[in-house]
Amino acid sequence: MDSIFDAIVVGSGPNGLSAAIVLQQQGLKVLLIEGKETIGGGMRTMELTLPGFKHDICSAIHPMAAAGPFFKTLPLAQYGLEFVHPKILAGHPLPDGSVTSLHRSLHETADHLGKDKNTYINLLKPVVDHWETLSPDILSPLKFPKNPIKLGLFGINALKPSTFLAKKFKETRTKALWAGMAAHGIQPLTNIATSAIAMVLMAAGHHSGWPMIKGGSQALADSLANHFLDLGGKIERGKMITHIDELPNAKLIMFDVSPKNLLKIAGDKFSKLYRWQLNRFRYGMGVFKMDFALSQPIPWKSEELKSAGTVHLGGTIEEISKSEKLIWEGKYSQNPYVLLSQQSLFDKTRAPDGSHTAWAYCHVPSGSTYDMSTTIEDQIEKYAPGFKETIIGKHTFNSKEIENYNPNYIGGDINSGVQDWSQIFTRPALRISPYRTSSKYLYICSASTPPGGGVHGMAGYHAAKRAIKDLF
């Protein structure tokens, strides 16, 4: 039977959409298949609480979408995509009432770090100044870099545990800010290479900001999809693929799915060795997520936090490190690291006039069904007395419910696999190309491949480039 399509992409997360665009740009006839009625994967926005309140299902703030090299090449603004930049990128309150913040300006951030001013500048400035040349290497599979010296200097610090590199700092506030950044990695801060997560997020912020998407993250997905359609691609929605035989014929097939789901869909096409490798892939901690409809802005004690798009709660580096370690061990923390975003302060389309939204999650053991609502609300209340009285609606996702909503988030792991030293470059298996499977012209392009989690589309970009080389 002749192939109707040259290529099929299964899954419409940022990586599936990116792969589809790259393949279509090559002149291939591409079909993108999405299991749900709306495209986007982790980039969906819904009225989860009350009518008129728009909440991002997963991704909420987009430093890597703004700073990543691929999205910059696409005319997404023509499709209505608009980044909204908060005055302060991220604020981090401490138990003593002080606040330290990440600003767009490297030097403005450093100016508030006391004795650590020069240490912070010396650590981040080389990455910020050379971001345009470094980011393609940082956000790529393991290969000989285009800028080996600059990347090597970055790697010397990036590969260290974040708790170890934090010893460079003298100020409690600097260490806390650093810990809040590293904790995005959803793993113990003592793990090797957790410094890379903090450095990349901070440098990306100083270079391009930590913006949100006007109207919700769905707008980014829609912009990518509409560009793909204008290039001549086709999208089929509401078709959940459970086995590869359900797909039409094509020259190549790409899967924006987790290794676990890839095995379910196409495991009988793979070698015994590759199946063994995929089965060994390790998933990380889950998240418990809350969305709030509020009668007014969060009443932070600190005026500074009222200008921050993102707020990291959890206290000092010692407290955050202890909390993340407990959760990694399958326990629960009563003082969890909470990542909170308050988009409606800067994007008035998110809530009815006079009302507001808040988006928050904490880490929990994989697959947890434990209700962390009270714990999260208490953590916010600690720094914003009266917060609970502003709540007029709320919605929760435990880790199991998150996986049920998006089958790629195994156990609620929104990073699609632990990003530690053993899985940074070998996601999901140790192979010449991480995107090739053992079956010719079947590829994996999800966040379970390099460079890992985040809304940047680079895994899909690199996977599509690899497939094009193989095809031609």
CATH superfamily of the domain at 5-43 and 62-82 and 213-282 and 417-471: FAD/NAD(P)-binding domain
Strand tally is 16
| Average pLDDT, all residues | 96
What percent of residues adopt helix (DSSP H or I)?
Answer: 25-40%
Count of DSSP H/I helices: 16
Query: What's the main sheet like?
Result: 7 strands, mixed
Question: Separation of termini?
Answer: 21 Å
What structural class do the secondary elements suggest?
alpha/beta
Q: Can you name the CATH architecture of the domain at 5-43 and 62-82 and 213-282 and 417-471?
A: 3-Layer(bba) Sandwich
Proportion of residues in extended strands: 15-25%
Gyration radius over CA: 21 Å
Query: Which residues sit in consecutive blocks of at least 5 with pLDDT less than 50?
Result: none
**CA-based shape:** globular
With strands numbered from the N-terminus, the spatial order across the biggest sheet is 7-6-12-13-14-11-15
Organism: Cyclobacterium jeungdonense
Protein name: NAD(P)/FAD-dependent oxidoreductase
InterPro entries: FAD/NAD-bd_sf
What does this structure look like?
- With 472 residues, the protein is α/β, with parallel strands linked by helices.
- It has a domain at 5-43 and 62-82 and 213-282 and 417-471: FAD/NAD(P)-binding domain, CATH 3.50.50.
- The chain is 34% helix and 16% strand.
- The protein contains 16 helices and 16 strands.
- The longest helix is centred in the middle third of the chain and has 15 residues, at 194-208.
